[in-house]
Amino acid sequence: MKRIVLLSLALLASGMLHAQQDKGGITAEMLQQIRTGESKSAAERAARNAMAINPIAELATNAENLAMIDTNFSHRVVTKGITDQHQSGRCWLFTGLNVLRARMIAEHDLAEMTFSQNYLFFYDQLEKCNLFLQAVIDTKHLAMEDRQVEWLFKNPLSDGGQFTGVSNLVMKYGVVPAEIMPENYQSNNTSQFSNLLKLKLREYGLELRNQRDRRSPVARKTEMLTEIYSMLVRAYGVPPTEFEWTMRNKAGEVLSTKSYTPQSFYKEYFGDINLEKDFVMVMNDPSREYHKVYEIEYDRHVYDGDNWLYLNLPIEEVKALAIASIKDNCAMYFSCDVGKFLDSKKGTLDINTYDYESLMGVEFPMNKEQRVRTFASGSSHAMTLIAVDLDENGNAKKWMVENSWGAKSGWRGNLIMTDEWFEEYMFRVVVNRKYIPAETLKLLEQKPIMLPSWDPMFAPEM
Q: Class assignment of domain 75-458?
């Protein structure tokens, strides 16, 4: 009887497989037809031979576009120095602090000056751990298989982020100069320690979901955060609560020596800037309706802070805001799909850098909207927008960003992008409200359209 059942199952499976092949599989006849498309030309053989032993990007390099882009810019923000995030996903934090740095250097006539990324990253990780644990408490009533719960446990922690993380963290914890809490190996190489933290968070998350004792979940969460704080101290050091700092001008002359807290330091030098209220993130996402405000659930760094909220605008309106800011010597938080058409040696972003179509013998015709909808493109990296080159009519020809990959990368630590590349692969710019027209600001009064955590626009910038 057992053999009959097994034979029946085998025949049934065979029949199902045959049916699947007939309906959607590659049949022998289809394969024969597919093979007829293979070219036998000498050019095809040459391309195949070259690809067998060379990187695609080198083979696709457009010989007609080898010359370096002109590095002159009609308008450029005053700033000095290049930072390096090393092997970490903290570009969002470097970018936000570099925007503040540019202002401080310009206003106080300083030599190179850098804020401590390690200081704010310590609190970023602590806050994100609390965000995850509290979100687990908030969703205890949902099944483990619920998509929101599943997303939380898949994404308990990240070293990536976006501008609302900068604004919430700075306004809550202040800032300190780099020498007060310098970088160390773990802050420059975050993956191993981050994996340990995520493992611990998942363990804690399960415990909170299954908690049956009478203690408050928040009380147990506080105990968990106490252990996490100790882990963070071992990895990144003890964040200062008070410090002394001497300001020197670019000639090296002492301007002042004072004692500060991180909050008082920010208040003294940036007291007129409220990062949470004075800035607006604008987005160019052609896959969604323009002139609408969007919000992404759980896309924040601080539980009691702000979800990422953005105003979606046509590209020409985004450009106008960015140009106004640069003309007024105000750097901006900027993010894009940096890996597309990047020539890392020259430090350029130009859609004519590589000719993939000629190399592969096929076209790649998708536009920006189609690439976003199919997950082929999205914001991946944040940098500081510092320059634009305008023609005689005021139209942008090219742009430049200050990167955080070190002074030896790109063009003197910067990346230069053509305006055409800007249109295709730029996604976000954070602009001070004073550069935004009144009619555009009025759009922010509408109720935001809430998007789920797993929306492709959530992807943290690294």
A: alpha beta
